[in-house]
Amino acid sequence: MSNKIDEFNQLIKQNVQHEGVTPLAIEGVGVLQWSRPQARTPVLYEPLICMMGQGEKVCSVGESAFLYKKGDYFINFLPIPVRAEVTSASKEIPFLSAVMSINLVKLADMITRIERQEKNAINTEPENASCIIVGQASDDLMDLFIRLIKVGSNTTDAAILGDFVMDEIYYRLLTSEHGYALRQLLSQYGHIQPVSRAVNFIHDNVNASIQVEELASIANMSKTSFFNAFKKLMHVSPMQYIKSIKLQKAQILLKQGMQANEASFQVGYNSFSQFSREYKRFFGFPPSQTF
């Protein structure tokens, strides 16, 4: 594995153009470098797979913390607000990783195709449901990420081969040592599907006042069952999640030049003073200091 990781890291260095994320020619794929530790920062992670080549990172969600380092993968299946911190990075040994956005429709299709071949559909509830998974990459998975970067480094290769490489990554993950557990989590029998509908509703109605009862109805679950399933998957309560999404959206609007009082209205706050207090508590600085 060490030789594969060395090759993986060398490819990242060849494609990195600046600190942070450098997009490749495959949509949703990029490489990442930091030459010094990065402070704990609130950020919204869309569904993605991160493959680690070097350094260490901690993502905190609610009371849970996920550490991933050299040779590990980090996956989140739903949009989730995290506090991300790069804990190990230097000019001599920079933090290096590759990221790939997850297409949940394609992932679900791959599960169906696998189960059609195995004739063994998942019909049990997963024991440890979480939309975040950290594990150690197999040689096959590391090989695929090496190929993903190579293909993504060439525009023509990316256009012709990019989807095939991404599909194989889905396949290898879903048939790996932890593949059955992943398929349990993502199957229609698990809670991720109804919770996903509620999450989509939150993101589509960020300017509205949203209640847990409304989300439970969308998920076709009782309020108690929905609350417990949501917190188990997302590591925060529904109301904590809603507040985080609203504040993250407000920060985007502020960075685009919108006035703070207008941004607070756009994300559903009726009280600007409440918005300012919660924004400062969440990000560590007031809306007026957002650049």
TrEMBL record:
PROSITE patterns from the UniProt entry: HTH_ARAC_FAMILY_2
InterPro entries, alphabetized: Homeodomain-like_sf, HTH_AraC, Tscrpt_reg_HTH_AraC_N
Superkingdom of origin organism: Bacteria
Cell wall biogenesis/degradation as UniProt keyword: no
Residue ranges of every copy of the HTH araC/xylS-type domain listed in the record: 196-291
Keyword Transcription: yes
Gene3D superfamilies in alphabetical order: Homeodomain-like
Keywords: Transcription, Transcription regulation
SMART domains documented for this protein: HTH_ARAC
Pfam families listed in its UniProt record: AraC_N, HTH_18
Name of the protein in its database record: AraC family transcriptional regulator
Originating species: Marinomonas phaeophyticola
